[in-house]
Design goal:
The chain is of the alpha+beta class. It has eight helices and four strands. A four-stranded antiparallel beta sheet has the order 2-3-1-4.
Length: 284
């Protein structure tokens, strides 16, 4: 266990901010905070915003190298932000080729998300609908990130707040319809479920390919892997649920996967809204 007492008093230490690259959801923010705490940082002295992807750290300057090494283990990129002014946009987003690659990711994610959502209704599968929600959510996050390039911290936080509310409403919709399906006792089309899940895996791989040429160092390569892995887990869960539905002749595997994906999505939405409100308060 890390000895947080060794961090020393930080009440009079000016906060240091880092831009975090490669974050995908609130779970990533919590992972980074735990890594900082393992280096002896008190829980109240480190905050990673799931809304603006900024880590705020209160620690003596002499201890920063050790803390930076600890958080670097997570695989995300950390760039220190100098000065107390507004936070400039990520320089990588100024590259037209990189922005085009991100637009490809947006189109693939949102496009297949809509297709998969329609397929979920046809197959009668809540897990497929929840997986489609994940695609649409990833596309929306990237889309708003592109729109917010060059915006001030306050406007980026407002953008994240709108995003969090939108994603939360989508998650509640899937959760509500899943609860309704418990009482309808209808078994989804396992074959179509499995097909849509397999196509989702392929789309995820295709979405990663345009970004690979822009990786710069181990941190960004790790970020690409994290995106691909996390999305693939949800796709694989849909495929497994389809197999269990076919084997058992029951809708429960489909419903359980849907509850799991929707629950994780709602948690991320809540964290984005919480952090966006905190960022807005800090900006004011």
């Amino acid at each position: 266990m890390a000895n947080t007492e060794s961090a020393g008093p930080t009440a009079d230490v000016p906060p240091v901010r880092y831009r975090v690259s490669g974050m995908d959801c609130a779970k990533d923010a919590a992972q980074i905070e735990r890594a900082a705490q393992s280096a002896g940082v008190a829980a109240d002295d480190v905050k990673v915003s799931a809304a603006t992807h900024i880590m705020t750290l209160s620690a003596p300057e002499a201890r920063l190298p050790d803390i930076e090494k600890a958080v670097a283990v997570t695989g995300y990129g950390f760039d220190r932000i100098e000065g107390d002014g507004d936070i400039p946009p990520n320089p990588a987003h100024q590259d037209p080729a990189y922005r085009r690659a991100l637009w490809i990711v947006v189109i693939l994610n949102v496009g297949y998300g809509v297709v998969e959502m329609i397929g979920g209704f046809i197959a009668g599968s809540q897990a497929v609908k929840a997986d489609a929600l994940d695609f649409i959510g990833d596309g929306a996050i990237t889309f708003l990130g592109l729109l917010a390039i060059g915006w001030s911290l306050a406007w980026r936080a407002r953008s994240a707040l709108i995003q969090g509310i939108f994603l939360g409403l989508l998650g509640l919709g899937v959760l509500g319809t899943t609860i309704v399906r418990i009482f309808e006792r209808t078994t989804p089309d396992a074959g179509l479920m499995g097909l849509l899940g397999m196509i989702a895996l392929v789309v995820n791989v295709i979405s990663v390919l345009p970004l690979l040429r822009f990786r710069k160092g181990d941190a960004n390569m790790r970020a690409v892997w994290l995106f691909s892995r996390n999305d693939a887990i949800g796709n694989a869960a849909v495929v497994v649920a389809a197999g269990l539905v076919a084997w058992l002749g029951s809708a429960w595997p489909d419903l359980i996967v849907a509850f799991g994906i929707a629950g994780l999505f709602l948690h991320s939405s809540w964290a984005i809204i919480r952090d966006a409100r905190a960022d807005l308060k800090a900006a004011a």
